[in-house]
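Hey, why these numbers?
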Amino acid sequence: MTEPMAADSFPYLGEEHTMLRHTLRRFIADRVQPFADAWEEQGFVPRETLREMGALGLFGMRYAPEYGGGGLDTLANAVLAEELGRSTYGGFAVTVLVHTDMASPHLYNAGTREQLERWMPDITAGRRITAVAMTEADAGSDLASMRTSARKVDGGYVLNGAKMFITNGVHGDLTFVAAKSGEAGRNRQMTMFAVEKGTPGFRVARALKKQGWLSSDTAELVFEDCFVPEANLLGQEGQGFYALVKNLQNERIVLSAQALGEAMKAIELTLDWVKQRRAFGAPLWDKQVIRQRLSMRLAEVEAARALLYNTAWRDTRNENVVKEVSMLKALAGTLVNGVMYDCLQFHGGMGYMRESAIERMARDARVQAIGGGATEVMLDEVAKRI
């Protein structure tokens, strides 16, 4: 097996990041890869595995120790996401990352002391899994088109509407829901709510079948006169849009890191394959076009990783990195799909077989150019700033 390439070659990464990377690689080798094919078949990651990750401190690395967190930084979560991507199981990776970096930050950043004490310890321990529900059938990247409504009543709010493509939606315990609490179409009237599993009027309409990410559960959620007590209001009424936009930067960093971890691992697997696979009397590696193409792909991935870790480092310094994050997300989502195309091609017929990791990785990678901000939307975000 080809040795991992340039895992810790960035000056931003310290000893704690290196130790984290080693911990993740051991855990994935021992507790994920031997079992993850079964998770692909069943459509979700077992709670036992998620609790094990929580016990290792992997579910709250940037959160305060008083809530079970590790008090680390954006760089730590980039390492986490990259190593999850290297697992070759994108569904497992996104199950974790939605919990750690896309959903639970809404509670940590906007929750009251009572809310934090009520939910955060179980979240960081992996006993309570979270989801975030903002996407709708007609409102993906365009959040202003959201239709789910929240009507103020005595003691709380009544939610009505539906959410689509919600990761962890089937098996999650706590969902952070965005809804319009005022005039339709106005961003400043969007509000966030914490809705617990089993709340009357809140149900999973259906589990969705996907092209890839098969070991992550994805759902359509429905709210029918769902009463949410005022104690479950997350942040200030009417400020939900700004909370969503703020956390999208973090979401896009980790999705990019996941994609680049996938790309690097695909190159390593393909190098192993072409060096031992013989055709026309010699290893495929002896074909100039193959070794040069893989060399260029490696150069592209390493360049993108440099952008990733520089952007994550700047984020830890509270710099405005919206432009860089948008560049990164557009680049990583496009690049990982190009890498997978080439790697599957160089695997030949075996690359098209379900028994091949590259076949699964290629299916999983396709959504990286869509989820968390489509490539075209990201490029327009860059254009606004240049």
